[in-house]
Design brief:
Layout (H helix, E strand, L loop, with lengths): L1 E6 L2 H17 L1 E6 L10 H7 L6 E2 L7 H19 L3 E5 L3 H12 L4 E4 L11 H12 L2 E4 L2 H9 L6 E3 L3 H14 L15 E4 L3 H4 L2 H12 L5 E4 L2 H7 L4 H6 L4 E4 L4 H9 L3 E4 L2 H9 L4 E3 L7 H5 L3 E3 L4 H9 L16 H13 L1
Parallel strand pairs: 1-2, 1-4, 2-3, 4-5, 5-6, 6-7, 8-9, 8-11, 9-10, 11-12, 12-13
Helix pairs in contact: 1-7, 1-16, 3-4, 4-5, 7-12
Bound molecules: uridine-5'-diphosphate (UDP).
The site of uridine-5'-diphosphate has 17 residues, from α1, α12 and α13.
Length: about 350
């Protein structure tokens, strides 16, 4: 069986690390990189550190609006599909790359498998939610990380080809934890293990308007304790005009760092007092490592972490973040929401069974 997998963003590289190996054990995988994330610190570093095979094709989409990127990726991906003639296309998650892969496969009549199917934040203003809904409705094999995801699909009338496989990010987290633990960690940044917050912010809702950027600066200025913020290049670019970057540089105890590689980031996470983030993946990774999470959004697709008392939704609101920081207690037991750490094998088996 010949599968063309399409990746293009930082979280997709993390998911591809365990899944490429599992797919290649059962079939023939052709890896395509869209180029949506092209900064070396968001892309090349991940291929090197995580041992992901070199892409067979690079679409090199480069910067642009999501619509521009979608159009370019679809056109270039169609050429790849015509050359490679795969039995299936596999896409990950909820980005513009995901949507481009899904639409191009569907328009060319090629069966589609979606990793991380069925997640919903029920906020259609999020580009990620739009991408998820369309991709799921075009998919032939829907690989769900959680029971909630299966239920979400059923509520939209999708029951065929649905598999509960667990979360491939949990596989990655288990696979790389020993290597991550051996990294220099917080001491290299002058931080005490267990004595700092790890911050990430990159979503459009937090960075695309002056009011949203001001709210972010307000939140990050009022954390009142040591914190490290590995800044996504997109976020840094948005903060730089208007003195906001300088304002953050002046916040006592806040370390502004370049985006970290996966291993360094995981080490910082494992040693953090708590995580403060608007990321999807980082909410789950905090749970995997038993670190309290404060999510700077009003909705999440990882609802079980909130319902279980491991994650607090605060929006980008300094008072609500402060209240959450004042109570970081969590249940001692962590239920196995995300499977047993063997999602990659389950995904490869399901794809071969359904489409092979
Ligand atoms: N990550 C990383 N370095 C960083 C920030 C995040 O390696 O400086 C990793 C993180 O461990 C997770 C993934 O990137 O595996 C999450 O990606 P991101 O937050 O960009 O996307 P989302 O999950 O929100 O789609």
């Amino acid at each position: 069986m010949r599968i063309v997998s399409l990746v293009g963003n930082r979280p997709q590289f993390v998911k591809a690390a365990p899944l490429c190996a599992a797919l290649r054990a059962l079939g023939d995988e052709v890896l395509v990189h869209s180029g949506q994330h092209y900064d070396p610190e968001l892309a090349d570093l991940f291929f090197d550190e995580l041992g992901i095979p070199s892409p067979d094709h690079a679409l090199e989409v480069g910067p642009g609006t999501p619509v521009h990127q979608l159009a370019i990726m679809m056109e270039r991906f169609e050429h790849v599909l015509r050359d490679e003639r795969p039995d299936a296309v596999l896409v990950y998650g909820d980005t513009t790359t995901t949507l481009a892969g899904a639409l191009t496969a569907a328009k060319n009549g090629i069966p589609l498998a979606h990793v991380e199917a069925g997640l919903r934040s029920f906020d259609r203003s999020m580009p990620e939610e739009q991408n998820r809904v369309v991709t799921d409705h075009l998919s032939d094999v829907l690989l769900c990380p959680t029971r909630q995801a299966v239920d979400n699909l059923a509520a939209e009338g999708i029951t065929r080809g649905v598999h509960l496989v667990g979360d491939v990010m949990f596989d990655a987290s288990r696979m790389f934890a020993p290597l991550a633990a051996a990294r220099p960690g917080p001491a290299a940044l002058g931080l005490e293990p267990g004595g700092y917050l790890l911050v990430t912010v990159h979503r459009a809702a937090a960075t695309d308007t002056p009011a949203a950027l001001d709210a972010m600066v307000d939140v990050l200025s009022s954390l009142g304790q040591p914190a490290v913020f590995p800044v996504h290049p997109r976020t840094r670019g948005k903060l730089q005009p208007g003195g906001r970057w300088e304002a953050l540089e002046g916040v006592p105890g806040l370390v502004l760092a370049p985006p970290a590689g996966y291993l360094d980031f995981t080490n910082l996470l494992m040693n953090a007092r708590a995580v403060v983030t608007d990321s999807g993946g980082v909410q789950k990774e905090a749970y995997f490592h038993g670190i309290p999470c404060i999510t700077l959004r009003d909705t999440t697709e990882w609802v079980e972490t909130v319902e279980g008392g491991f994650n607090a939704l605060t929006g980008m609101d300094a008072a609500r973040v402060g209240a959450a920081l004042a109570d970081l207690s969590m249940p001692a037991e962590r239920p196995p929401y995300y499977g047993d750490g063997h999602a990659a094998e389950a995904i490869a088996r399901a794809v071969v069974e359904e489409l092979g």
